[in-house]
Amino acid sequence: MTNISSIQSEYQAIGTKYVQLKLAQTNASDYVKKLQEEETTLNTMLLEINQKEQTLAAELEKKYGKGELNAETGVFKPAN
Q: Containing domain of residue 32, as a range?
């Protein structure tokens, strides 16, 4: 009888670890999905800010002509 009890205990231990493993895999999968969603959001934000930058550059060029604007000092240097 001791052998049967030992085998049953081993089955239970393995079963418990298997369930824990599956739960960990599910949690990891959910976390990866959330990270991918966050990456998509950040990519969208980058595209939007890039579009704003291009629009502003076009507006400034139309108003002041071609040149360079030092963002830190606010000094505009016209192109030659």
A: 2-78
